[in-house]
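Student: I would love a firmer grasp of how sequence relates to backbone shape in proteins. I am handing you a single protein, as its sequence and its fold in token form. I am told such tokens are a discrete way to write the fold. I hope you can help me see how the letters and the tokens relate. Take your time, and here it is.
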Amino acid sequence: MTTTTLERPRLFRLPDFRRLWIADTVSQAGTAITVLALPLVAIGPLHASPFQAGLLVTCEYLGFLLLGLPAGAWVDRMRRRRVMIVGDLARAALLASLPLAAWLGVLTLAQLYGVAFGLSVCTAFSDIAYQSHLPQLVDDERLVEANVALEASRTVTAAGGPGVGGALVAAVTAPVAPAVDAVSFLASALFLSRIRRPDPRPERVPGARLRDEIAEGLRFVFRDRLLRALTIAAAISNLCGTIGASMLLVLLAGDLGMSPFLCGLVFTAEALGGFLGSLLVTRVAARLGEGRAMVASVVVSGMLWLLAVPFFHADGRYAVACLLQALGWTAFMTFKVGTVSLRQRLTPAPLLGRVNATFRFLAWGSMPLGALAGGLVGQYVSVRAALWTGAVGELLAVVPLLVAMRGRRALDI
């Protein structure tokens, strides 16, 4: 072991990273409750149809499709920590409007759609800023470790969130539950404001135009064979996954009449599986090589999610579905974490915001389209048909990875 390694402090002894980690963990804990509460508001008190429920999920991701690309260029011009703080405060205000409207008796689907869209816009900016700010707080050798730590805490909070959310919805009604998430965003903003590392405004190139800066990010992603493949694979996975996911609560709470607590169990199982997977990422990548590990991750997770679909029933089969969903997320975490770490490692710092935005635009921008497709299939064919369509389509995500990683050297990255 070298002297440098011995002298390097542990990750959580770095105070600024610790504050970022706490802020993210607190906000994710609240968001895990909202993930369950918003659809249950639509399906329950507001009596949304399958298409209307799918449209809500579309709004939850629409910001990435409409503003994903310019958001990256704007973030590269701004103080990134300030972007995250403003995003947290705006999301707190949006979420607080729901219990207020419910108390006044004026809550509507239109407001729910507006809040969901507003949250997606804030998240589009905040997440790009957070992924671009992280390399300023830790060195390159620790990016994977830092991303694993953040992802592990996210999955832990997501594990408890839906279960707590289900109990909270049952106790105080679905429209009031998002107030907890509003408080979590206020706490997150407080911890972010305590980060001491300087957050200078990036230097702008004289005469640079927004359109040219966006194009530069797009070119960087699509000229790199590996980044291009990772982005397309993530887009296919998210598109198809959202087709089924947008209808899952419609099936559980609507068609099967399951309680909010039981509906939340599948999300808890997924989060527990994701947490286990996050702990295994570095070990799996070291054993198989990063390229092979990500290919295996997409294939195995897709097969497990496909096997889960016929087990979604309001009896003992539901436990099997939850287990398969959990194992699918255990497998998928290698691809999810590996993609973020590779993107951060391969991208020059001045381009990181735009490259992250390009990825989010394509990978997350596909999700509102998937949710819209899921709503249409659920409305005009059947809710369960939407789940089958999404699960089968998930397997196609491996194709761009196999094309880009032909040859042993590419597979080892």
